[in-house]
Amino acid sequence: MRKLRTEEITARRIPKENIDNVERLPIIGMLDNIRSLYNVGSMFRTSDGAFIRHLYLTGYTPKPPRQEIEKTALGATETVPWTHYPNPLDAVHAARDAGARIYVLEQTTQSIPYYQITPSDFPICLVVGNELTGISPAVVAAADTALEIPMFGTKHSLNAAVAYGIAIFELARKYKAGK
User: Fold this and answer.
1) Backbone angles phi, psi at 38, to 5 degrees
2) Is residue 179 over pLDDT 80?
3) Contact yes or no for 130/33 (Cβ under 8 A)
4) Which residues contact 67 (CB under 8 A, 6 or more apart)?
5) Nearest to residue 95, comparing CAs of 150, 26, 149?
6) Contact at 8 Å (CB) between 149 and 158?
């Protein structure tokens, strides 16, 4: 075993000029009032890595172009289609109009573990919320299902970008396994 060189890794990827010709996964990400520009950049990069269909930035979530977003996005703001909605419920309606079910990544009285998603659940819009207050109550009320990442230590939640990454890649894995 040896570490791959950058050229070898790049050869495995979709060239940026061909990105619009490749079908994306039926996953929409939605960021509900994320505060940290670095978290937003990280979620752009994760969205590119999972090759999701679209990313909705809602409320006061910062949007490109911003140097702090680019620092962690590493160019993913140019490869992930995104839209900003001042009102998060407008993004929920847009996702529904695109045929997606709304899944909030939040601990609720009816949340299920994130790994219980099945291929028949797609297309999905995965919503992640504010680093301190979580997803707004109106968006939770509009959701079809709540997903949670089981926590085993003393903390009750993960960093928003970390939680997004865990959930998005599990959704991608489940969808690809069901194809």
Assistant:
1) -70, -35
2) no
3) yes
4) none
5) 26
6) yes
Task: Considering only the C-alpha atoms of the chain, give the largest distance between any 2 of them, rounded to a whole number of Å.
Answer: 50
> What is the arrangement of strands in the sheet containing 82-85, beginning at the earlier edge strand?
82-85, 52-58, 25-32, 124-129, 101-105, 145-148, 112-113
Query: In the prediction, which pLDDT does 169 show?
Result: 98
Over residues 13-30, mean pLDDT: 94
pTM flag (> 0.70) = yes
Residues 6+ away with beta carbon under 8 Å from 38: 68, 69, 71, 72, 161
- Non-local CB neighbours of 161 within 8 Å, separated by 6+ positions: 36, 38, 39, 42, 43, 46
> Nearest 5°: phi and psi at 24?
-85, 165
